[in-house]
Amino acid sequence: MEIDLSSLADPANTPTASWGNRRAAKKIIADMPPFDDRTSIDQVHMANSLAEALRLDPHNPHGWFNLGLLYKFDRRWRESALCNRRAALIVGPDAQPEFWNLATAATALGDWDEARWAWTQYGIPLESTEGEVKEDFGPAPIRLFNGGNAEVLWAHRICPARVKLVSVPFPTIGHRWGDIVLNDGAPRGTRMAWGREFPVLEELERLVPSSTETLECVVSATEDDINALIETITDAGWGAENWTTSVEMLCKACSEGHVDRDRSDHQHGSFLGEADGSTIAIAAPYDIAVQHLDAWIDEQPNRSSTELRNAESGWKDAGLL
Predict the structure, then answer these.
(1) Which listed residue, of 10, 15, 22, 186, carries a Cα 20 to 30 Å from 265's Cα?
(2) Where are the alpha helices (DSSP H) in the chain?
(3) Could you tell me whether strands 201-208 and 139-146 are parallel, antiparallel, or unpaired per DSSP bridges?
(4) 3-class SS of residue 1
(5) Which position has the higher pLDDT, 263 or 240?
């Protein structure tokens, strides 16, 4: 998808198009297929059509917004930011999706002044007035992608368009605890937690990879004892999770909608389990993880664990990666 944006007139410096050109541009855009399924659209053809519409009428906000959406699909953030800014300035204060996508693109670029301005125009109040937009927006589930694999896990929102992963992902998803991920604004599905419903965000791309490796072991202990181990590690600032009990396989309808465990025609189930224990994932340096695990075992005689191993190399050896 190669469009020379410099060949498209800046609407801020361009007189209003003629009535005929405005009508022709509207028809080009109206005849385009919907953007609901990005895998089924011809992005090159659509981009060329949008460029033609904008040459006819540089003041058409739908043309700029849709072109910015195509650049967003391609993760070309500088071009997406330019298109969405032009669309937002044409629409004015009511430009909600335009400002959101502009802020998202600016966040991906690390252009914090632009991102802060766009979030404010969208209507999201921010406490900070300069520098990186990094605040507490609470917990959120996010769907991560890696090829044909997808996994929903929990994260903490540090701005409207970024999360930091707090769950420990499976190695198959290509992410680690602590990754900073750019998220889309359109949710797909919901999850219940802490007595409320959360919209499921979706990954756009990983912005900052975590250097913390994922370890795993199989422990034998009571549920309370296992929870104590996980709490000790997370309280120390690292990640830990009981993969055996926390991971559930959902059908596509429930994963991307509302989870319904009562319907017999929906196939759900556990993903990972050990007959003789629980698989614990730990995101921490090896020496620190060993210290916590040894101290936990020494506290009670009925606790035991297999040796810690690197989860990524272990899953590769087992043919799961």
Answers:
(1) 186
(2) 19-30, 43-56, 61-73, 77-91, 96-109, 112-122, 223-235, 243-246, 252-255, 286-299, 311-317
(3) parallel
(4) coil
(5) 240
Residue with tokens 């605890």: 177
The more confidently predicted of residues 42 and 69 is 69
Amino acid present at 28? I
User: Where do the domains of the chain lie, and which CATH numbers do they carry?
Assistant: 5-122 (1.25.40.10), 139-208 (no CATH), 214-317 (3.30.70)
Which candidate, 95, 110, 103, places its Cα nearest to that of 61? 95
- Full DSSP string of 193-214: ETTEEEEPEEEEEEEE---PPE
Nearest to 214 by CA among 239, 183, 246, 232: 239
Contacts of 122 (CB under 8 A, 6+ apart): 96, 99, 100, 103
Mean pLDDT of 65-75: 95
Is the Cβ–Cβ distance between 85 and 11 less than 8 Å?
A: no
* Residue 56, phi then psi, degrees to nearest 5: -75, -40
How many whole angstroms separate alpha carbon 73 and alpha carbon 50? 15
| Euclidean distance between CA atoms 24 and 74, whole angstroms | 27
At 228-252, the pLDDT tens digits run 999 999 999 999 999 998 876 666 6
Separation CA 247–CA 241 (nearest Å): 10
- Is residue 152 within 8 A of residue 183, CB to CB? The reply is no
Rounded to the nearest 5°, which phi and psi values hold at 303?
-100, 140
Q: Work out the pLDDT band at 321, boundaries 50, 70, 90.
A: very low
Distance of alpha carbon 161 from the chain centroid: 8
Distance of alpha carbon 129 from alpha carbon 35, whole angstroms: 35
> Strand, helix or coil at 25?
helix
Give the torsion through C-alpha atoms of 299, 303, 306, 311, to 10 deg: -80
What one-letter code names the amino acid at 277?
G
